Structures are given as C-alpha cells and as structure tokens.
Amino acid sequence: MPEGPSLVILRELVEELKLEGKEILKVTGNTKIAKERMLYQKVVGFKTWGKHFLICFDGFALRIHLMMFGSYRINDRKDVEPRIGFEFKNAELNFYTCSLEFIEGDLNKVYDWQVDIMSDDWDTKATIKKLKAEPESLVCDVLLNQQLFAGSGNIIKNEVLYRTELHPLNKISSLPAAKLKALVVNARAYAFDFLEWKRAYVLKKHWLIYGKKLCPKKHEVHKEELGKNKRITFFCPICQKRYKVKTSV
C-alpha cells in the first residue's frame, strides 16, 4: 500500500503537468461512480491527505485510495481498463485497482490536516495528547491509525519503532514521556526521509529492519503478525525495549 510520502510524489508529478484550471475532456474507466459529473469540469487543484489523493473541483473532490495493490500511469496506460482515467488537452491520468469516492463541499471540514504526517499543519503536541487518551493501545497499532498518523504505513511503522528502540507490543501507557515524544517526532521525521529516498530511488537501501533477517547490530530479526490487524511486523527483541506496564498503587 503506498504510504503518505509516495502520494506526495504522485501529487508533485501531476502538478508538473500544470493541469490546474484545465478542463477534463474525457473520463474513462470501469468504476461505478458517476464519473460523468467530472466531464468538462475544470480541475481546481490536487491535494493529498495521508494515503488519499484528491482531485479537487468546484464544490467537490474525487478521493482516490490506491489500497494494497493500486497503481497509476501518467501520460501512459496499462493494457487493462483503468478504474478511472482522465484525458486533458495535453495530458492523461489513469488509476488502477483503487477505491473512489466523491467528497462534497469543503475538504477542510472533512480532513484534519494536523494529523497528516506530511502536512505543514502537522501538530506534534496534539498528537501526543491524543495518544495519551489511548493508554491501552499498542505502539504498532497507533502508527497505523490514520486518525493519528495519516500517511503512515507498515514500512514507516517498522522503521520508526526500530529507530526509537521500541518493541511493537509496548502499550502507550508504559512509555516514558521522552519515548512517547520520540515516537511522534520520529514518525514525521522518517516520513520526510522516506520521501527524499523514494525520490532518489534508494528507499530500500535505507531500511534498517523492514524485510531484514538481521538488524544493524547483527541480532536476529523477528517477523510476526502483531496488533489488532495482525500486520507483519519486523523487530529486534534485543534492540527494541519492551517497557513494563505502569500500575497504580
């Protein structure tokens, strides 16, 4: 599943086409949504929130979620019919194996930009406060919670937990204040590292734990399905500390 930084790259690539203010001349695809409403509409802009790519029009937007196996083509197409495709005067966008939904009205009333790890409006203090309100949640789960870390996915989760030396089964309530802050700060910091490495086509070279058999310190890496959604998690039980749950007297 493409994570937030990958969606930012998609937005940047599309913005290079200078389609803002341009009219859609043809809409194709096997989607069942009312795609005809976008025909001859002018694009107001493109936005991303977490793992959502948003094509904005006057009064509404199309939300595109690439899910686990989604993909796109710019000025190109696959041999199969897209889920949704757009043709402009001098450009073409095609999206495959994705979820589509119209969002009506003001996006600011739908999306909380403060929880988007790639957004200029990201709020570290607000996120820490929200985490403290979920003391029983596991750190491996909160990093995948899009209402807390929009755009964070399994790669970011694994890498951030290793970098902050946190065992994935730690509960929020067990973390020292400094570690809780480090978790939040590193989630955003790593997302921007991810973005730069992805742009340079060297992302995998920088993985410390994800997909590895040994951690950088040559300890055996464990691979388990953890958390409420049983997502694959790579971790080092030696480097990543599991804190004792705090008990009240």
UniProtKB/TrEMBL annotation:
<dbReference type="GO" id="GO:0008534">
    <property type="term" value="F:oxidized purine nucleobase lesion DNA N-glycosylase activity"/>
</dbReference>
<dbReference type="InterPro" id="IPR015886">
    <property type="entry name" value="H2TH_FPG"/>
</dbReference>
<keyword id="KW-0238">DNA-binding</keyword>
<dbReference type="InterPro" id="IPR012319">
    <property type="entry name" value="FPG_cat"/>
</dbReference>
<feature type="domain" description="Formamidopyrimidine-DNA glycosylase catalytic">
    <location>
        <begin position="2"/>
        <end position="103"/>
    </location>
</feature>
<comment type="similarity">
    <text>Belongs to the FPG family.</text>
</comment>
<keyword id="KW-0456">Lyase</keyword>
<keyword id="KW-0326">Glycosidase</keyword>
<dbReference type="GO" id="GO:0016829">
    <property type="term" value="F:lyase activity"/>
</dbReference>
<dbReference type="GO" id="GO:0003906">
    <property type="term" value="F:DNA-(apurinic or apyrimidinic site) endonuclease activity"/>
</dbReference>
<protein>
    <submittedName>
        <fullName>Endonuclease</fullName>
    </submittedName>
</protein>
<keyword id="KW-0378">Hydrolase</keyword>
<dbReference type="GO" id="GO:0006284">
    <property type="term" value="P:base-excision repair"/>
</dbReference>
<keyword id="KW-0234">DNA repair</keyword>
<dbReference type="InterPro" id="IPR035937">
    <property type="entry name" value="FPG_N"/>
</dbReference>
<dbReference type="InterPro" id="IPR010979">
    <property type="entry name" value="Ribosomal_uS13-like_H2TH"/>
</dbReference>
<keyword id="KW-0511">Multifunctional enzyme</keyword>
<dbReference type="GO" id="GO:0003684">
    <property type="term" value="F:damaged DNA binding"/>
</dbReference>
<keyword id="KW-0540">Nuclease</keyword>
<keyword id="KW-0227">DNA damage</keyword>
<dbReference type="GO" id="GO:0008270">
    <property type="term" value="F:zinc ion binding"/>
</dbReference>
<keyword id="KW-0255">Endonuclease</keyword>
<dbReference type="Pfam" id="PF06831">
    <property type="entry name" value="H2TH"/>
</dbReference>
<dbReference type="Pfam" id="PF01149">
    <property type="entry name" value="Fapy_DNA_glyco"/>
</dbReference>
